[in-house]
Amino acid sequence: MVGLHPAVGNSCDQGAANRTRSRQVLRLPASAASLCPELVQSEPCLTNTTCFLYQYRATDWSTCQLSGHAVCGRGFRTRLLDCFRSDGKLFEAGVCQQLGLPNEWKLSESCEVSCPVSCLLSDWSPWTECSHSCGNEGQTTRSRRVLHPAEEEGRPCPGQLLQTRSCPIRPCYSWLLSPWSQCTVEGADCGEGMRRRSLSCVVQWATGSSTLSTQPVADRLCGDRVLRHSQQEMELPCFVPCPGDCHLTEWSSWSSCQLTCLEGRSFETTGRQARSRAVIIQVLENQDSCPRQVFQTQPCTGGRCYDFHWRTGGWRDNAREVWCQRSDGLNVTGGCFSQNSPTTVRYCHPPCTKPFSRCTP
To answer: What is the distance between the alpha carbons of residues 139 and 132, in angstroms, rounded to a whole number?
Structure first.
């Protein structure tokens, strides 16, 4: 009688409910009365009990194998094939081959090991011009860039792609204007006079605290670095008031340019700006002949609209401060409508005439 391979077990046919086996009569008994036992047996198919399913299973690929002593380039890699049974047992691939299972697995293929590539950098650029033409704070720089980054085990790129160094220290020469002198009147104590200032060549050096110290040097060292100022810029007419005269202070700075606005919008392109100077009365008897304050205005461009609102302080002894404030937070004179000004003093209604009494809110 012929049977199946005992170590493998019986293979299940897909979709079959039963499996059978048969045998042949090799020799008849001498007595015809003795009948041979059954020649065919059948039993139901039970996966992993009476029959098993088989399939090919491949291992992982091996590492890429190179020829000779090569460390990179083209090579090949391989893998093995096993026969896997449905109960988890592995057999040699020949078992699945005996069962006639189709095999489409590829067990060898070409591969490539990347060769290491080191970082490739450009040449250093030329040094730039010095950031300062003189002094000790000048710096110059140069740079380079990465042409090709490193690959695999190649030499990595350095972190420094920019270099900086100090420039040679050179003295800084420049023309320096002195402050205006006091107003002096030639041959008199008051009247029309002149204020003067001088122009000198100085050298600047940075001290340890990073502040500049200046020292006068010969004018030829400054040369034509800065054109000399005209005589009008070196002398300024002034006036020393005589006893009994009205003395005016210096002009204030010009105010910001302001437009005439209506509800935050302006319909003009040219604005106005103002400046003023105060009057100092030296003799009280002459106060009626002196102006209270002098104003000047001039046209300007680039103005903006402002809103003006009255602001008030707290009441103190039935009096309070009242002022006009511009929308940018600046307290100004003018701008607010005088007819809308809040009261600065309050009175009792009806009048309070009792001694040591005052109005309440």
So the answer is: 7
Q: How many CA atoms lie within 13 A of 255 on its CB side?
A: 23
What distances in angstroms separate CA 330 from CA 254, 256, 275, 278, 340, one per listed residue? Answer: 15, 11, 15, 20, 19
Cα distance between residue 178 and residue 212, in whole Å: 16
Helices (H), the chain: 93-98, 231-234
Radius of gyration of the chain (CA): 54
Task: Give the C-alpha distances (Å, rounded to integers) separating 299 from 254, 259, 274, 328.
Answer: 11, 10, 9, 21
Q: pLDDT tens, 59-79?
A: 899 999 888 888 788 889 999
Please state, as a whole number, how many other Cβ atoms lie within 10 Å of the Cβ of residue 96. 23
Among the listed residues 247, 150, 110, 128, the one whose alpha carbon sits nearest the alpha carbon of residue 190: 247
Compute φ and ψ for 77, nearest 5 degrees: -135, 155
Spatial CB neighbours of 224, under 8 Å, sequence gap ≥ 6: none
Q: How many CB atoms lie within 10 A of CB 11?
A: 20
The DSSP secondary-structure symbol of 282 reads S
Q: What phi, psi does 181 have (nearest 5°)?
A: -80, 170
Closest CA to 175 of 195, 194, 197, 208: 197
pLDDT in tens, 260-285: 777 667 777 788 888 888 877 666 76
**Omega of the bond prior to 361 within 30 degrees of 0, cis?**
no
Handedness of CA 221, 224, 172, 180 (dihedral sign): positive
* Half-sphere CA count of 348, side-chain side, radius 13 A: 10
Half-sphere exposure at residue 183, Cβ-oriented, CA atoms within 13 angstroms: 14
- pTM surpassing 0.70? no
